[in-house]
């Protein structure tokens, strides 16, 4: 962790978790399927990651990709996932839910926060598709979320920088604002200097070719637009170190 700034790295594999810690990450967001923006990881993944890293692991609670309007049965899954990851060593949780009109689902979030206690909870980038971010931030602060992850309701944290800065000013330390979304070594310094934040979120990934020698190029395991089965994305130790150094030099 760079002194003064905390870098959270989102990871979806044990290898990425280890690389993130080696590179200087201060915290992990653990999920599965980063291609979908991250969904709840398996208990097996959480257990093995906890065996290999010492930094805090915040676990994603998201039962599926897509929007953040959940059915009663999906909420049952979220409650059960919270109970399971708590009992298997999660240091914190990452979750969020919206109403059909694009507001924070305060009633559901209150219920999920109660199940999550005493673990700290981050409200994830569901925030970026709310109807009114100013109102949403007040709701999250009053509910007791520790932080909110946001790209400033734009396609990247750099483009959402003006709103991120306003959210930091609005929060007044009641809730942490953590920018995330498209953060790289090329824009991190500008985001940190222009926002007033103390934490940031990134994936810092590089492509890695599969070790498979035999390959069947005719078959895809998912939709035709998904990544090839013979290409992997993993957190890159060098990228994490570079981002950490930039944050340290921004002080």
TrEMBL record:
It is found in: Cytoplasm; Nucleus. The keyword Metal-binding applies. One of its GO terms (cellular component) is cytoplasm. Keywords: Copper, Cytoplasm, Metal-binding, Nucleus. It holds the Pfam family CutC. GO terms for molecular function: copper ion binding. Homotetramer. May play a role in copper homeostasis. Can bind one Cu(1+) per subunit. Belongs to the CutC family. This is Copper homeostasis protein cutC homolog. It comes from Esox lucius.
């Amino acid at each position: 962790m760079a002194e003064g700034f905390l870098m959270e790295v989102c990871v979806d594999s044990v290898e990425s978790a280890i690389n993130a810690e080696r590179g200087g990450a201060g915290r992990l967001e653990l999920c599965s399927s980063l291609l979908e923006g991250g969904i709840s990881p398996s208990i097996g993944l959480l257990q093995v990651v906890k065996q290999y890293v010492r930094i805090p692991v915040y676990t994603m609670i998201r039962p599926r990709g897509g929007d953040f309007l959940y059915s009663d049965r999906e909420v049952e899954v979220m409650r059960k996932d919270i109970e399971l990851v708590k009992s298997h060593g999660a240091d914190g949780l990452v979750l969020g839910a919206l109403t059909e009109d694009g507001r924070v689902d305060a009633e559901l979030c209150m219920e999920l926060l109660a199940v999550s206690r005493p673990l700290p909870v981050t409200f994830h980038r569901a925030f970026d598709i709310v109807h009114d971010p100013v109102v949403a931030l007040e709701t999250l602060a009053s509910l007791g979320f520790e932080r909110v992850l946001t790209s400033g309701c734009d396609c990247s944290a750099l483009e959402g920088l003006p709103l991120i800065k306003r959210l930091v000013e609005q929060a007044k330390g009641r809730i942490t604002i953590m920018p995330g979304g498209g953060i790289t070594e090329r824009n991190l310094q500008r985001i940190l200097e222009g926002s007033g934040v103390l934490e940031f979120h990134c994936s810092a990934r590089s492509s890695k070719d599969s070790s498979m020698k035999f390959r069947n190029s005719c078959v895809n395991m998912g939709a035709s637009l998904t990544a090839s089965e013979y290409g992997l994305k993993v957190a890159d130790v060098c990228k994490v170190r570079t981002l950490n150094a930039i944050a340290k030099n921004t002080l």
